[in-house]
Amino acid sequence: MIDILTEKIRKTKAPVVVGLDPMLKFIPEYIKKAAFAEYGETLKGAGEAIWQFNKEIVNHIFDLIPAVKPQIAMYEQFGVEGLVAFQRTVAYCKEKGLVVIGDIKRNDIGSSSAAYAVGHLGQVQVGDNSFYGFAEDFVTVNPYLGSDGVKPFMEVCKQEKKGIFVLVKTSNPSSGEFQDRLFDGKPLYELVGEKVAEWGDGLMGTDYSYIGAVVGATYPEQGKKLRKVMPRTLLLVPGYGAQGGKGADLVHFFNADRTGALVNSSRGIIAAYQQEPYADYGSAGFGAASRAAVIDMIADINGALDEARL
Description:
By secondary structure, this protein is an alpha/beta fold. The protein has twelve helices and twelve strands. The chain has helices at 2-12, 29-39, 43-61, 73-76, 79-95, 110-120, 147-160, 176-179, 188-201, 220-229, 267-270, 286-307; strands at residues 16-18, 67-68, 99-106, 123-126, 129-132, 138-141, 163-169, 182-183, 186-187, 211-215, 235-237, 261-265. The mean pLDDT is 95.
């Protein structure tokens, strides 16, 4: 799957992933009204509104980008009905030829970690049959419990030819409280990056490992350092747009051949119609506004790479 993802990045010339992180406040009133008319102001109504919203956005952007990243918390808050919307979204995105990165940030050990891995990446055994649960192509994993929490995911990745992105240096303001602490003269995030590179050596695709890393766009200097620590690791880069990251900050996340990074934007894309540059599209044109925002994001990143001559 890592080879499929990197080939899609090259083919689209868009090192971009769109975060499908729906909130009811992002969804136009006419979509909510229709969903609530059918199912009431209920969890099922909310799930239907989310599904219709996601589908319209995907219809407008699937040909521009290689991948999407649904954040499971935005679905889980609506209980089982939210997870139904999550599953429908994953399936629909895959029908449209998109690689799906499940942003689940799971972390546990032993059988619990294995169950998370099977539920999201692998197949669960039911009697003589086996079934995919959510069936994402990649998921995000928290490494805080050490190798015990990551290796079960690696085993499923090996079986299914899928991948994970391990949290290394996250984009949030307080990430440094732990991640920047020094151990043996190195910040913790660098030690985690070294471990990710080590794990990845045993699960290599053609150019990059099945074991990727999450490195926030809001920390460009750390990204520059981690690019050297993990030269054959695909970096998933959150923090573009709404969190302050921009194309000029990101050039050091890429390798010299302009590969190696996949930049995420969530609300900056899916709620573009609520932002001043795209307000003329109106709520009825929210899908078209999202497409315009994706085109602008791709141009910003590629322009920065051109400027840096990468």
